[in-house]
Amino acid sequence: MKQITIAIDGFSSTGKSTVAKQLAKHLGYIYVDSGAMYRAVTWFAMQNQFIGASYFHIQDLIDHLDQISINFKFNPELGFAEVYLNGNNIEKDIRTMEVSSFVSPVAEISEVRKLLVKQQQKMGESKGIVMDGRDIGTVVFPDAELKLFMTASAETRANRRFQELISRGDEVNFEQVLHNVQERDFIDSNRKDSPLVKANDAIEIDNSNLSLEEQFNKILQLVENKQ
Ligand code: C5P
Predict the structure, then answer these.
(1) Is 134 in the pocket of ligand 1 (CB under 6 A)?
(2) Residue nearest to atom 2 of ligand 1 (CA)
(3) Beta bridge partners of 1
(4) pLDDT given for residue 21 in this prediction
(5) What does the alpha-carbon distance between residue 71 and residue 86 come to, in Å, rounded to a whole number?
């Protein structure tokens, strides 16, 4: 069967990564969580005091981008690839509310986007890849055979993210999570460089009322039509 490129974009917590992982496993494709790469740069900026509650030294971050090396390594126990920054596994560190609160301003920086998009395009050179993010169908893989744009109501999405954080033992409240989801969506959709928009040829999937199984079967059908 023909190996294709699958680009999945959409707002925060629309279940992009869940379906992307299911597809990659089923098809034997590589799965790349591009959001993890923006989170890794954010984590780097936090560790180096380039970004914090009351400051953002953008130029310092830009000047140190050449010190960032991001890799993914498959963890067979988890069934997906974890993200590494300069050799350290930071998969858990990048999923906190703190990183979530800084990531969208970091992702607005064109120099950051240029660096990560180049790496993402390299990962997709041989096709057989599912990548999720905000600009995958528009900028990273404009020629992807299948482009999906996932949506769900803000409350559904915040509730998903809230359950995820609570199950990890994080102390967060629902209002805080809802605010973060809405704020990120706003910044991501309104930034100058590569804003989150649905590609003209993307298929929109609203999964507010779909079970995971229903969603997977619907998308698998779309994949099979393209292979
Ligand atoms: O996918 P996730 O919610 O982990 O992404 C975190 C943030 O990274 C997004 O809110 C967005 O600001 C940024 N991002 C991006 N472009 C991508 C993927 C993520 O700007 N392709």
Answers:
(1) yes
(2) 35
(3) none
(4) 96
(5) 8
